[in-house]
Amino acid sequence: xxxxxxxxxxxxxxVALLLAVKDGDVRAVTTVAGNVPLETATRNALITLDLAGHxxxxxxxxxxxxxxxxxxxxxxxxxxxxxGDTGLPDPARGPADGHAVDVLLSLPRRHPGELTLVTLGPLxxxxxxxxxxxxxxxxxxxxxxxAGAADLHGNVTPTAEFNVWADPEAARVVLRAAxxxxxxxxxxxxxxxxxxxxxxxQRRLEALGTPLAAFAHRINRTVADWAxxxxxxxxxxxxxxxxxxxxxxxELVLDxxxxxxxxxxxxxxxxxxxxxxxxxxxxxxxxLVRRVDEQGFKRLLLDACAHVPLP
Length: 311
Ligand code: BDR
Ligand code: CA
Known about the structure:
InterPro entries: I/U_nuclsd_hydro_CS, Inosine/uridine_hydrolase_dom, IUNH, Ribo_hydro-like
Helix content: 40-55%
Structural class: alpha/beta
Mean pLDDT: 97
GO molecular function: purine nucleosidase activity; uridine nucleosidase activity
CATH superfamily: Ribonucleoside hydrolase-like
Low-confidence stretches: none
Oligomer: single chain
Radius of gyration: 18 Å
Number of domains: 1
Organism: [Actinomadura] parvosata subsp. kistnae
Largest sheet: 9 strands, mixed
Protein name: Nucleoside hydrolase
Bound molecules: beta-D-ribofuranose, calcium ion
Strand content: 15-25%
Strand order of the largest sheet: 3-2-1-4-5-6-11-9-10
Keywords: Glycosidase, Hydrolase
Order of helices and strands: EHEHEHHEHEHHEHEHHHEHEEEH
Number of strands: 11
């Protein structure tokens, strides 16, 4: 499956990239400020692709701040370096020429209806592209976003999920251009229920003994600490990998909802999804994934990490 991936590469984005290169055909990666500042996100995407044996995939830096707000990172979750503060060496190559927004605009025009776009960070790059081409979403085969919390249990505020909270105006631009046949969101609720790496899962991952498994395990160590502090339970989430798995293998979806969704941008409710479930609601603009095959997802994850790239 030809993929274009937009990411604020932190530790779970990196694991999603491992899934993408294993089962997809990644044509380009674009980066955006989110978990970490833009330059760090770009560095992490390069490190991950190179380690996975895909040093030919270009990485294009994009927006270094939300559309209208100052940037906010999640370095208290993913580490200062976004990769669990594991001291990874610099990548052997640099970013590719061309701004991410230009790539988001030009690649689907060159390959109309072929590319699947997966966004794993704040929606700033996609929104900036949409503001220049209102038909952009129709040029993709489908657009999958790790975004929102359809059950309104957030991870930044009680009701808001990070990618939407970080740039709610961008999320609104995307939602106002979306139709359910074109755009699917996989939210924090899905991750919380079906993509938590329990201590057993973590042991299985480590036991693979491959470089990619060790990498995936180590870079998530600050996320594991954060999740334990916040929930009181062992086990950390992999929201971006489960979104990527759904894009690559839509048969993993066991329940979905088509709804009219907007996002709150006011101070008190910033980033909260506004899902209209009234009988007289406007027509749906979005598909929300609500349940996935947890064991199927975890099998894919282990498969991707068991893979040993050719030198
Ligand atoms: C999202 O925010 C980031 O912390 C993760 O990488 C994921 O994209 C989860 O809310
Ligand atoms: Ca992310």
